[in-house]
Amino acid sequence: MTSTLPRPVTVGLDVGGTKILGVVVDGENRVLTEARFPTPHISDASTERVGVDPGPETLASALARAADELANRVEKEGAVVEAVGVGVPGLVDDTGVLRFAPNLLYAKGMSVAKMLGPLLLGLPVVAENDANCAAIAETTCGAASGESDVIVLTLGTGIGGGIVLGGRVIRGANGFAGEVGHMVIHPSGPTCPCGRRGCWERFASGSGLTRLARERALDGRLESLIRTVGCKVDEVHAEHVTAAAKAGDGGAQAVLRELAWWLAMGLANLANALDPKLFVIGGGLIDAGDFLLEPARAAFREMVEGREHRPRLDIVAAALGERSGAIGAALVAREEVRTPAARS
Fold it and tell me: Which terminal Cβ of the chain has fewer Cβ within 10 Å, N or C?
């Protein structure tokens, strides 16, 4: 006899600097559906006055619309959403309040669950740092499945870090651990949205790739890419570089090698401090594949302390791709609903 009981599922939303990626995950960690939605920005027409911060309410409304759309899709197929998990970049405290996010400054102080829950008719909502979500996903059903000492990095608008040591996500005294993108690696480097100069993410993230590419284009080293894309120098973006590198553009590949060197510098620092067994690289920038990872591996071997005396430390792509954060958010929500003390 076939059961007609509704299937419990959870929604996971991963908030990035440019997009919200949403998924619905079932009890066997399968993604049933996914969708992308724009992240609200200061200049969006959805705000009352252009140039005025949209405020946390705007983000809450966008998240609610995304969750509703995803829920409607699966409920038509007999599933029932039991919780929503939200992964957000920045300092997320133990109560789910986003204390500070350099790439989402208008959402500072947002209590994600308290603001989003009423918009979803009281459905349980759990907030977690986006890179912690990615780490949970990759160690549960991804590239680091079964591993207990792993660092997962999400390379998007910025760099997020999820640190798993001894089989536990390391959150720190306040829940703020893992903000590795704001390690200062060049004190006189470019200004970061966090207010300081020379943060790692200014050199090794998607926005870092955009900056490097524009500098090289101004130097005349990306003429082929500029001709192919048909844009001005200040319109070049990371996606253009990745696509051009895959198409065989030598200039674009050289920019990715430069970015890979900066990525390796941060990885070497983290390896020296935390001694993980594995680095998992995710986020949108992983679309560059081996054009990024191979030179990063080579540079890392030259930089890490005592490379000839330590066991091999692998640097691999996230098996779940850019969906890691969203899948992890769904897993966090499911665990919180079924075992409320799971994150303590």
Answer: N
Residue 164 and residue 41: Cα distance in Å, rounded?
32
The string of pLDDT tens digits covering residues 2-16 is 445 579 999 999 998
Cα 106 versus chain centre, distance: 18
pLDDT (tens digit per residue) in 218-275 = 999 999 999 988 889 999 999 999 999 999 999 999 999 999 999 999 999 999 999 9
Query: Is residue 296 a contact partner of residue 314, using CB atoms and an 8 Å limit?
Result: no
* Tokens 């970049």 -> residue: 89
Structure tokens at 279: 């680095």
CA dihedral 157, 195, 204, 206 (to 10 degrees): 20
> Which of 280, 56, 273, 108 minimizes the C-alpha distance to 177?
273
Q: Which of 70, 97, 98, 18 is nearest to 330 (CA)?
A: 70
- The rounded distance, in Å, linking the Cα atoms of 42 and 104 is 10
CB 255 within 8 A of CB 241: yes
Taking the chain (344 residues) in consecutive chunks of 10 residues, what is each chunk's mean pLDDT? 70 93 96 95 48 78 97 94 96 93 90 94 94 97 96 94 97 95 95 95 96 94 91 92 95 97 98 97 94 98 94 95 95 88 55
Closest alpha carbon to 193 in 75, 205, 134? 205
3-state class of 326 per DSSP? helix
Nearest to 282 by CA among 245, 328, 316, 331: 316
Joined tokens for residue 32: 């049933």
